[in-house]
Amino acid sequence: MSHAPLPPSAAERWIACPGSYQAESSAPPAPSSEFAELGTTAHAWFATGLRRGLPAKAMTTDPLMQRPLDAALTATRQILGSRAFMVELRLPPLAGLAALWGTADVVGFSAAGPVDTIIDLKFGEAIMVAADAVQLGIYGLLAARCFGVATDGLTAWVIQPRHDHEHGLARSHHYGRADIDRLETVLRNAVKAAVAADAPRRAGAWCRFCAAAAGCPTRQAAPNAVPAARSAWFRPTPRWLVRP
C-alpha cells in the first residue's frame, strides 16, 4: 500500500516537528517489524470480514488473532448499524495539499448520504491511541470534503481490541462542522511549515517513530524530551483474556 508524503499516521510528528518531514525524506527507510506486519494482516482480515460479512474464525484459527479481531468486527458493526459504509477507502487530498491524503479503514454514511462516521482499527497493544488523535481527524476532514458531512458533523471512532482501556475497546470523538474547518486551517499551516526550507525541528514523544531520529541533532540535544519506550516484552493483558 502506498503512503502519502505527509501521512496522516505521522501527523502528530510533522505538526509538532515540521523539520521531521524533510529529515525523514533523506533518511534510509525504517525496516519493517513483526508488529507492523501483524497490523497489516489484521487490517486485511478486518476489511475482508466487513466486506463479506464474515466472522473472524473464517480468516484465522489463531486465538490470539481471532478473539481481538472478532471483538473489533462486532464493535464496528454495532457502531455502523444500518449505515452504508466503505472500507479501505483512499481519500483524495484537499486543493493545494497534494502531499496529504490517506486511506481510512471505514467511512460510514448517514441515511441522507453525507459522511457521519469514521472508524480506525488499531491493533497495537502497548500504546493507547486516543479517539481525538489528529490522524482520525484528518480522515474525517478528507471524507467530509470528498462526500459532504452530516449537519451535526461526524464522529471518529478508534477501535483498539488488544489494549486494555478503562473505556473499552471502542472510543469516540465528535467533530462539528466548525471543528472540521478549524482542523483544515491547522493542517494547511502545518503543511506550509513542513515544506519550508528552514522548517524547525522540535524533540518530543513523536521522535520515537521518526526514521531520522538517530542522526537528528535536535533529538540528541534533548534526550529527556522523549519518553522511554516500553520493553519489547511488555504485553498488557486484555480484559477478554481474563477469566472471571
Overview of the structural elements:
The chain is α+β, with helices and mostly antiparallel strands. It has one domain: Lambda Exonuclease, Chain A. It contains seven helices and five strands, in the order H-H-H-H-E-E-E-H-E-E-H-H. It has helices spanning 11-16, 19-25, 34-52, 63-80, 134-147, 177-195, 217-220; strands at 84-91, 102-109, 115-121, 154-159, 170-175. The chain has a five-stranded mixed beta sheet with strand order 1-2-3-4-5. Helix 5 (134-147) links the parallel strand 3 (115-121) and strand 4. Helix 3 (34-52) crosses helix 4 (63-80) and helix 5 (134-147) crosses helix 6. The longest helix is centred in the N-terminal third of the chain and has 19 residues, at 34-52. The chain is globular. It starts with 10 loop residues before the first helix and ends in a 24-residue tail after the last helix. The model is unreliable at 231-244 (pLDDT under 50).
Identify the CATH class.
Alpha Beta
Radius of gyration: 19 Å
What's the total count of β strands?
5
Which percent range describes the beta-strand content?
Answer: 5-15%
Helical region count? 7
CATH topology annotation: Lambda Exonuclease, Chain A
- List the helices and strands in order: HHHHEEEHEEHH
Give the strand order, joined by hyphens, for the main sheet.
1-2-3-4-5
Taking the sheet with the most strands, its summary is:
5 strands, mixed
Distance between the termini: 41 Å
* Class based on secondary structure composition and strand pairing: alpha+beta
Shape: globular
Total of domains: 1
> What share of residues is helical?
25-40%
* Unreliable parts: 231-244
Mean pLDDT metric: 90
Q: What is the CATH architecture term?
A: Alpha-Beta Complex
